[in-house]
Amino acid sequence: MSVPPVPAGSEVVIGTDGLPRTPWGDSSELMRHYYDTEWGLPVRDEQGLFERLSLEAFQSGLSWATILRKRPAFRQAFAGFDPDAVAAFGPADVEHLMGDAGIVRNRRKIEATIQNARATVALREDGGLAELVWSYRPEATPSPRTVEEVPTTSAESVALARELKRRGFAFVGPTTCFALMEAVGIVDTHLVGSHRRGTSGVWPG
């Protein structure tokens, strides 16, 4: 996800509820709810990972808040991100989606989502999407104390992007893959001192 701009060197901020968070996690009620209840918690099922990967791709060039606001519409438009259902979409479905004002109407991203659904289904013959994505978990997670210390890529995200492309996925560059890894708990980039750091159970606080 692309985080809202904050001053370089920003450390955790204390919310009105007294809890310390990474600055973007306290930037609005929408972002606070997402930060507190979902971001960084492990997602290990195929459909959940396909949804997160799809939304990260749609977010490219946009704010994450925009994607979160449109998430219910995305889920309706893409059959709850059921890979089998989306894999069956054809040209008529693409045109229908291009007319759906509730989502991001970007033809390349819509077509990439359908392509990625088909690639996800194909991956089942070789362990599946969740097994592949989680196999790129690093030996250690970053421990950023300021926003500027949070990385946007890693050796693992570069490698994951390369493998996903080899497997037929689109819109899966190293930055998108790192954002996915953050979102689903593969790495923990909550700032040190945030009340959310270490809560995934994947990494210590």
Automatic annotation (TrEMBL):
Gene Ontology terms describing biological process: base-excision repair
Zinc is among the record's keywords = yes
Q: Does the keyword Metal-binding apply?
A: yes
Q: Which GO terms describe its molecular function?
A: DNA-3-methyladenine glycosylase activity; metal ion binding
Name the UniProt key words of this record, in alphabetical order: Metal-binding, Zinc
Q: Where are the transmembrane segments?
A: none
Q: Could you identify this protein by its name?
A: DNA-3-methyladenine glycosylase I
Organism for this UniProt entry: Kytococcus aerolatus
